[in-house]
Amino acid sequence: MAFGQKFKLINMAKKTFVVGCFDDEEVLFPAVKKTRLAGYKIHDIYTPFPVHGLDHAMGLRETSLHTAGFIYALCGTSTALGSISWILTKDWPLNFGGKPHFALPAWIPITFELTVLFSAVGMVLSFCYLCQMAPFVKKHHFHERATDDLFVMVIETTGKTNIDELKGFLSNNGAKEVNVQVAEPGWWLGRYDKDQELIREQVEVA
Amino acid sequence: MHLKYESQLREPLVYGDKTYHQVTEDIVRPIEAKPTKLWYVGFFIAVALLMFGVYSVYREVTYGIGQWNLNKTIGWGWDITNFVWWVGIGHAGTLISAILLLFRQGWRTGVNRAAEAMTIFAVMCAGQFPIFHMGRVWMAFFVLPYPNTRGPLWTNFNSPLLWDVFAISTYFTVSLLFWYSGLLPDFATIRDRAKTKLRKYLYGVAAFGWTGSTKHWQRHESLSLVLAGLSTPLVLSVHTIVSFDFATSVIPGWHTTIFPPYFVAGAVFSGFAMVQSLMLILRKVFGMEDYITLGHIEAMNKVIVLTGSIVGCAYLTELFMGWYSQNKYEGYTFWYSRANLFSPYGWSYWGMMACNVISPQIFWFRKMRRNLFVTFFMSVIVNIGMWFERFVIIVTSLYRDYLPSSWSVYYSPTPWEMGFYLGTFGLFFTCFFLFAKYFPVIAVAEIKYVLKTSGESFKDGMDNIEEKGSEEFAHEYAH
């Protein structure tokens, strides 16, 4: 574990999670509702495909990613118009067939293309940043079939949580498989073909 | 109980009694298996073609554009024909992935991944032609506006050729981002079931640490929707701008206002034909008949007959305008250089008419739309026809222009000109073979998403829903 020895993993805070695996999204929905009503804190639900309405059921707020996309688009528009008009009217005005230097209609295509380009690139980068995704980023996977056919509900526990009761609660609500995992919920730089023991001890911060 | 309802009248999108796991198995299995002999044969043929193309380009770069039969009169020949043809091919992928997403066409899920891959590879091939047509290719970066020591001397932002630079590069970038962001969850699926260390490592890197978190899915959905919304006008703009290369000139046969819609329709037409050719092979080789169904093929044939007829309409409009404008040069170009079978290039015009307008009419018949042999044959015919279209537009307008003294001798390509074109086929198929072997050719997560509404075995469950009134259904299933 070369990586862990080089850096002090102060941010790595292990937590205890109770994991319930469902094999049908139609069983999952009532279970989510009941779990929230019972007052448990759902850390996350991992699904193999986007389950519509699950974000609302979990009480997540709408994403603002599309707003960011709009702002990036405006940046693209102003970059294109600003630079082209500066170049062709101020920096080096060239005479193209006696046409006006400020030839706005002829700039529309490039302005449009840069609008789209800025918006798309910006949104994808924001998406990766918000989801903390990049090559060589590794995260703890609560169940490896969460990307295949299981809907994995992960509940965060506190010292006061009665874990056995919670496990029973999940199986009563249709979970096919229930287990307890101590895991690091964030990400770290690592490789999926190697097991890394990231959390060996909690670092005490004075 | 169903979270979403779809009418029984619609054909299933996924055949067979599938579970989510079965979907993963079916699509990922070819990736995990060893490549077949057929794959090796195809791959090496593609690489050989690519090598021939590299050699042809090498000759062109070393000895100059004189390696091609272009001359003062016909300054654009096979190269720009091929450029427009390949860009057009790319358009179907974006149409399927973006426009059909906005129109909520469920059937796109079966074919969008491979069609998007086709888009990316086709645009890569297209880009080669204008770049090497420059002659001194090492100066290619001059098309980019960057502060330089020559003044700075900027590019001409009023020129359609520069618009093309921006359009094609934006199109390539956005298509790549759209495609790759869709691939992330599927790479994660392969990573999580990988048995070998190498596969786990490589797909682990490729999946960017995707977990399938609900919040991530929510953002992913938003991203896909906005990228689709951006790609839709983008794809229309790309071929519009390509058509501006011609339409803003004063050459008879090019100087027409119908070019943008006519080019876009033609692009979608040829692109769908290419998708058909590839899909028919893909579903056969990988046994994906359950996912790429006859329904998918029929839907695409409907698009082909629609866009083919739009293109046909444009051809007739041009002929009409050639006469109605009473412009001598227009009339000469359309009625002599093109529509007259016995003029030097008349054969290409009538080849185009036969391939693009007359033969696709066969798809008015449902039986023909659902016939695999007819579909495959027609997909090849349409692509040949669309190549002819670009050849007709470029060469028949150029070879006899305003000055009879500069009329060209008969233009035919050199082997190196043809070699370059073959080479792009090599590039395309090399990429496509690698894609088909190492990438999930069908979007796994998206198939799972539509499985319970459009899967064959799940559709029977809709019967009891159909008996209920819509009010009752809405009340019960709304959340």
From TrEMBL, chain B:
Q: Does the keyword Transcription apply?
A: no
Q: Which UniProt keywords apply?
A: Cell membrane, Membrane, Transmembrane, Transmembrane helix
Query: Out of the domains of life, which is the source?
Result: Bacteria
InterPro entries recorded: NrfD-like
- Per the record's keyword annotation, is Flavoprotein included, yes or no? no
The protein's location, in the record's own words, is:
Cell membrane
Which Pfam families does the annotation name?
Answer: NrfD
Transmembrane portions of the chain: 38-58, 83-103, 115-141, 161-183, 223-242, 262-282, 303-325, 345-365, 372-399, 419-439
Protein's membrane topology: Multi-pass membrane protein
> Where does the protein principally reside?
membrane
Q: Which family does it belong to?
A: Belongs to the NrfD family.
Name-wise, this protein is: Polysulfide reductase NrfD
Question: What phylogenetic lineage does the species belong to?
Answer: Bacteria, Pseudomonadati, Bacteroidota, Chitinophagia, Chitinophagales
Tell me the gene name.
nrfD
